């Protein structure tokens, strides 16, 4: 009887220890390298939830940025960059206005490419500010993070994860040019998966499949313009020739802010997870004007009732 009681007490103590240490052991240190702009607004919700579950998050961001503001559920580490705030502001305004321009599509394409080049220069400068900041890199390296959470569309965080040899979790909407396919080694046949900007449906005719193939080099060109500097920086830091595909291939988990409701079905790999709903985490009620305009657009004539 006494032995039984003692045993039970030991088991209880053991369980208690497991529960306490278990909670400790679970808490991780997350290095967050966000992409500025709207992608951060969704990622911020993930960081909020990580904090609520007892994890510790450090967000690195350029001093001059659009949306990455300090919050009480993460620590911020900023770094200096070689551009100034007004320049970034005026670029964003001009770039957004492009969407509303009524010009020939060739002009629009050329203007968009020029704007993209200019915009990617901001991201490139920002990445240089982070990767070549010796003090910050030393500090981050010494902080022994368990994981890097980053949007690989701005591949600076992916390069940083590789440089510091920390496992990476990618959080993204999509790449314009199948770099995610390269990174996940996922099949992506032209005959089956509609490419970006082609407006092709999921059941394509022969000619739509051909169009699908013809768009690929154009999309690749966009990526070359935007992403070459990151492969260069990675090669410089790792002191060997590295492609962006190789950097992305080291991602452990890919969280896609997409959804079968928004995107066409396609082959996926076991480390690809679809979390499209997170884009709605920051919803606000629509204004009256918005609602009226929407009703009018989907139900013509309805407003006369
Ligand atoms: C990080 O620290 C380790 C151990 O001190 C060192 O071997 C490694 O070179 C450091 N990495 C960087 C990128 O500084």
UniProtKB/TrEMBL annotation:
Residues passing through the membrane, by range: none
Principal location listed in the UniProt entry: membrane
Molecular function as annotated in GO: glucuronosyltransferase activity
Entry's EC annotation: 2.4.1.17
GO cellular component terms attached to this protein's record: membrane
Signal sequence region: 1-27
Its membrane topology: Single-pass membrane protein
Keywords assigned: Glycoprotein, Glycosyltransferase, Membrane, Signal, Transferase, Transmembrane, Transmembrane helix
Cellular compartment(s): Membrane
Class of enzymatic activity (EC top level): transferase
Family, as annotated: Belongs to the UDP-glycosyltransferase family.
Protein name: glucuronosyltransferase
């Amino acid at each position: 009887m006494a032995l039984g009681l003692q045993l039970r007490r030991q088991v209880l103590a053991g369980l208690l220890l497991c529960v306490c240490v278990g909670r400790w052991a679970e808490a991780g240190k997350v290095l967050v390298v966000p992409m500025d702009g709207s992608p951060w607004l969704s990622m911020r919700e993930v960081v909020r939830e990580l904090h609520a579950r007892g994890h510790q998050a450090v967000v690195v961001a350029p001093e001059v940025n659009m949306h990455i503001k300090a919050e009480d559920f993460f620590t911020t580490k900023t770094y200096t960059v070689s551009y100034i705030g007004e320049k970034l502001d005026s670029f964003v305004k001009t770039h957004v206005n492009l969407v509303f321009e009524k010009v020939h599509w060739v002009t629009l394409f050329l203007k968009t490419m020029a704007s993209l080049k200019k915009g990617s220069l901001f991201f490139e400068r920002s990445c240089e500010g982070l990767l070549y900041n010796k003090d910050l890199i030393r500090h981050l390296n010494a902080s022994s993070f368990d994981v890097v959470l980053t949007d690989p569309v701005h591949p600076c965080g992916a390069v940083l994860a590789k440089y510091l040899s920390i496992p990476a979790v990618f959080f993204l909407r999509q790449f314009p040019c199948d770099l995610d396919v390269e990174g996940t080694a996922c099949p992506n046949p032209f005959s089956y998966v509609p490419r970006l900007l082609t407006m092709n449906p999921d059941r394509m005719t022969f000619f739509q499949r051909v169009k699908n193939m013809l768009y690929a080099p154009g999309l690749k060109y966009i990526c070359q313009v935007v992403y070459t500097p990151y492969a260069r920086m990675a090669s410089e830091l790792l002191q060997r020739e590295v492609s962006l595909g190789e950097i992305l291939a080291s991602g452990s988990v890919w969280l896609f802010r997409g959804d079968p409701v928004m995107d066409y079905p396609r082959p996926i790999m076991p480390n690809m997870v679809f979390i499209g709903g997170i884009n709605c985490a920051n919803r606000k009620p629509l204004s009256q004007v918005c609602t009226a305009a929407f009703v009018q657009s989907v139900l013509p004539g309805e407003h006369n009732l």
